[in-house]
Design a protein that fits this description.
Number of domains: 1
Shape: globular
CATH superfamily: Microbial ribonucleases
Mean pLDDT: 89
Strand content: 15-25%
Largest sheet: 6 strands, mixed
Strand order of the largest sheet: 1-6-5-4-3-2
CATH class: Alpha Beta
Structural class: alpha+beta
CATH architecture: Roll
Number of strands: 6
Helix content: 10-25%
Number of helices: 1
Radius of gyration: 13 Å
Low-confidence stretches: 1-10
Order of helices and strands: EHEEEEE
CATH topology: Nuclear Transport Factor 2, Chain: A
Length: 108
Amino acid sequence: MLPVHARAGTSDAAVVALTELPPEAQQTERLIRSGGPFPYAKDGSVFGNRERLLPVQARGHYREYTVKTPGSSDRGARRIVCGGRPATAPEVCYYTADHYASFKRIVQ
């Protein structure tokens, strides 16, 4: 399935089952739901949604988490971005493999 960009204020992002994500993304999702500990200092920081590819929400709604990339010497491009409170039970999470250029909504 080709990735589809989410448009501001809508929920038309492509969908991906959690079980279809790379194992590292599945591990990051488990860490999110358990409250960590997270391997990177920036994990859990506010995601600004500046490009407005995700539905528009108030600042602070979205948080970002790094998905480890095997062989990468830095954080790499893969992330999970979740929205809603509490952080351990987000309303929605999205996966990006291309550093926020596109998103897929994660479904259980």
